[in-house]
Task: structure prediction
Amino acid sequence: MFGLSAPPPATDHLTTIIGLWPDLEDALAARQQTEWPPVMGLARILLDDDARAEQAAERLDTSAEAPGARPVPISIDALDTMRDVAARLVYLADVIAAEIQLPPMAPAPRGGGWTPEEIARRDQLAAEDAADPRRWTWPTRAEDSAGHRSRPVPARQPLARTAIGASAWLAARLEARPGPFLPLGPSRIADIAAVAADCVYRVETALRIARRAAVVSWPCPACRGQLELHGGDGQPPTMACTDCGRSWHSGAVA
Result:
């Protein structure tokens, strides 16, 4: 009987997010890049000088509302991606920790016949358990909206509530590392895998290293079928017809 284990790609995705996060931070200072699909030069990929394609390209290139590079001080793509990815990962860690993280050890009871040495030792162990760096922590709140005390918060926060901190904590849970936790179970493993896959795609897309496809608004010059543009990963874009299968790559027809 094989034990339950996490799919390797889930841990790989979380590790990739941690590794690429500094690049995403660096991208904040970069000038906003052309959005995908690029609105300028699509027709130039095609060999055929179809009038409709040229007219469409001209309208897109000259439109005041056309998306593309703007003189903004930071990359909006990078900023939005960082906010969204961090929020999703931290929220997922919050939910899973609430379900599998064991509560800290209670301090020694007073007046229970314990010796001062026993009380001191138990209190020390309880403090160390609460401050265990393997624990995930929630935001510190003295009271909730109903006026009741919220869940205890450790004396120090072991992991920052950031994308990197949440990714590291989730990856450790997927790898079943020791700690004050219950097993994840298949449904939680699947949840982590789904969120990790989507988040790593968002990060790679913002860094222009994820290849994407987009439908083109004008027809194939050969058969009038549907064209798709593939690219966005830093490699030369490719135009392909989903009907006849013909493709164009950097001015060469295939």
About this structure: The beta strands are 212-215, 227-231, 238-241, 247-249, 252-253. The CA atoms of residues 215 and 228 lie 4 Å apart. The first helix runs from residue 8 to 27. The first strand starts at residue 212 and ends at 215.
